[in-house]
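Morning!

This is the sequence you dropped in the shared folder:
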Amino acid sequence: MRFEGKKVLITGATSGIGRATSIAFAKEGADVYVVGRNQNRGNKVVADIKELGRNGMFLQCDVSSPEEVEKIYEMMSNEGIIIDVLVNNAGVFITQSLDDMVFDDWSTTFSTNVNSVMLMTKAFINDLKKSRGCIINNASISGLDIFTSGTKNYMYGASKSAVVKFSKLCALNYAPDVRVNVVCPGIVDTELFTNRDFSRFDGVIPMGYISKPEQIAKLIMFLASEDADYITGAVIPVDGGMSLK
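The structure's back. Tokens below.
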């Protein structure tokens, strides 16, 4: 029960890594605020949280919209809710060759993967200073300088690199009040992959298998816990060794 009495806000929380992380925090005592666009999926996550005996609330929001982010912040502020943990997890995965690249897809990728992180951080940073809380941003090994792979990874890789740099600057500028860290998953079995034939990844992961969302959630939980109270600005791959190749 590392998070007993803590309040955790998670974006992109209705599926995949976000859903797994929401449930994991609830199992360890946190009240979880589930942010997403799909009302039905959000309600299901909240129901699972409440079955664990914790408070849960679904906040319908397009986190790439300044107006909608401000709206959920004002709602929580009016209720006197000050969060302890912000997990910026919302993201899209669009890949195209440079020749086939469509600007609208580039714009969507950066709006969802980068702008949302900035908007949520800016909205909640003062509350996190009050609670001496922390932020965990979900990037990707695609955003690491040491990892360059994929002939169609321009948009996703560039957006996740931006998340890494933004996170490091926040970690520097808001220490010691707020810790900011980054998780960089490799290939995770989530809904982001519409092509479910994972055999194309055979031989590229030294650990020999594709991770589950719950394995990423474990790292997020550690970084949010008191066990990581001297860690800020860290960028941690959780990829089964894929970025070593």
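Headline: The chain is about 40% helix and 15% strand.

More detail when I'm at my desk.
O.
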